[in-house]
Amino acid sequence: MPPEMTVKAQSETSNSPSQTRPTNIPTQSELERMGRQRPDIFKTWWAEIGFYFSILGSMLLAEYFISRFTIILPTLSTALDIPPESRTWPANVFSLVTGAFLLPFARLSEMYGAYTVFTSGLGWLHGFSQNFLMLTFCRALQDFGPTAFLPSGIMLLGSIYRPGPRKNLVFCLYGTFSPLGFFSGIFIGGLSGDHIRWSWYFWIAAILLAVVSLVALAYIPSDRLDQRSKQVKMDWMGAATIVPGLLLVVSAITDSSHAPPGWSTPYIYVTLIIGVVFLCCAFYVEGWISDKPLLPFDLQICACDNSLVRAHGRRRTRPRHSWRVTLHLLSGKVLFVASGTGYVVSVLLFALIPERFSYWAYVFPAMLGVDVTYSVSNVFITTSLPKHQQGLAGAVVWVVIFLGIVFFLGVADIVVSCTAHLGVRKTYKAAFWFATGCAGLGLLLFVGFVDVGQAKSAFTADEKAELEAKQ
């Protein structure tokens, strides 16, 4: 039984004299207290603040690279003579490579500890680019940094903080640094592209990464010995089929809109077919061959309750600190639906925007979408899974994000290419109507299939399993 569980052992006899309820089960008030206190692994406030700085800084820099590279892309395209049909690759390759390698790197976190993988990812080197191929190659190498530190960062948060208000706050802050990184990338990308030199976009990020890396080395708790004692092994067959399958399928979709004859181009459909074959092999390997699959079929992420663990807190809030209080009052489903509605409205405004429009009527409201799905999903998944699967929890979250970005950007590019004969304005309209359809489908899924309760102090997944085993 974990140390937090050894509080005020109380024997409560049930209606049947021959049956007794398990002892050492904390009351709800005791769970609430444990959910608010600083984890024992942090001896001082400064240690926890240093930990916050490292994890939150990694999120800011990840969003800096993910979302705002497109700001300097026009300047880069001119400086490096990148043809129009190839300009999607430097932007997409980041999400593509990161999404494809997340599961193997999550397993490395479980094998060698989140500390080792997280700090190694922050220290990944960046390159000097003199042409399009070198830029794409260095951009792909750059992806291995976030591939390492993003799932391991969630693994650290999910394993250190137990369900409760403190975990809610931490994940709220983690989500808050996503838009901060987004707008920081806009500012620095615009500044470096127009007033300095495009390479400063990367140099400034490298300086920030160096600072975050040093703080992480000092304040991230080391869990290497703890993880290695579990004797987790790499699923090499799964990695050898999942990674190339994802790379080939998404590459074919992304490149199809710019290939001269489109989908009839031999290298497009051959790449797609080979990718699909790899993914089918991965499905078979993960389900029936591998004894330690990267993505196990029996992965259970559910929001079920029972008499012992009534307030199983696995839901959370949003990229704004103020939502932390709301999480205790509203269910996760309400927050998901609110977020889905915000998604629909934000792209629908651009789809309906007239030729002569008011910024405050169309553009500004579209920037205020209530994006809470990321934070709610993080808390829900990390609380649902046991400690030894926290690396997988981080990978699941980010795989969906990155592959969603690169896949649907590729499909949107196809939509734009197919409607190019209608003119630029209608082409953009078609892309935003496609986005509206995707957002609407997501909202329907939230309404019909998502059932997530409030985020409250509760038992961890490991504690719940231990209690159920003693019944």
UniProtKB/TrEMBL annotation:
<feature type="transmembrane region" description="Helical">
    <location>
        <begin position="87"/>
        <end position="105"/>
    </location>
</feature>
<feature type="transmembrane region" description="Helical">
    <location>
        <begin position="168"/>
        <end position="188"/>
    </location>
</feature>
<keyword id="KW-1133">Transmembrane helix</keyword>
<dbReference type="InterPro" id="IPR011701">
    <property type="entry name" value="MFS"/>
</dbReference>
<dbReference type="GO" id="GO:0022857">
    <property type="term" value="F:transmembrane transporter activity"/>
</dbReference>
<feature type="transmembrane region" description="Helical">
    <location>
        <begin position="266"/>
        <end position="285"/>
    </location>
</feature>
<keyword id="KW-0472">Membrane</keyword>
<feature type="transmembrane region" description="Helical">
    <location>
        <begin position="112"/>
        <end position="132"/>
    </location>
</feature>
<feature type="transmembrane region" description="Helical">
    <location>
        <begin position="200"/>
        <end position="222"/>
    </location>
</feature>
<feature type="transmembrane region" description="Helical">
    <location>
        <begin position="392"/>
        <end position="411"/>
    </location>
</feature>
<dbReference type="Pfam" id="PF07690">
    <property type="entry name" value="MFS_1"/>
</dbReference>
<dbReference type="GO" id="GO:0016020">
    <property type="term" value="C:membrane"/>
</dbReference>
<feature type="transmembrane region" description="Helical">
    <location>
        <begin position="359"/>
        <end position="380"/>
    </location>
</feature>
<feature type="transmembrane region" description="Helical">
    <location>
        <begin position="325"/>
        <end position="353"/>
    </location>
</feature>
<feature type="region of interest" description="Disordered">
    <location>
        <begin position="1"/>
        <end position="33"/>
    </location>
</feature>
<feature type="compositionally biased region" description="Polar residues">
    <location>
        <begin position="8"/>
        <end position="29"/>
    </location>
</feature>
<dbReference type="InterPro" id="IPR036259">
    <property type="entry name" value="MFS_trans_sf"/>
</dbReference>
<feature type="transmembrane region" description="Helical">
    <location>
        <begin position="431"/>
        <end position="450"/>
    </location>
</feature>
<feature type="transmembrane region" description="Helical">
    <location>
        <begin position="144"/>
        <end position="161"/>
    </location>
</feature>
<keyword id="KW-0812">Transmembrane</keyword>
<protein>
    <submittedName>
        <fullName>Putative MFS-type transporter</fullName>
    </submittedName>
</protein>
<feature type="transmembrane region" description="Helical">
    <location>
        <begin position="234"/>
        <end position="254"/>
    </location>
</feature>
<feature type="transmembrane region" description="Helical">
    <location>
        <begin position="45"/>
        <end position="67"/>
    </location>
</feature>
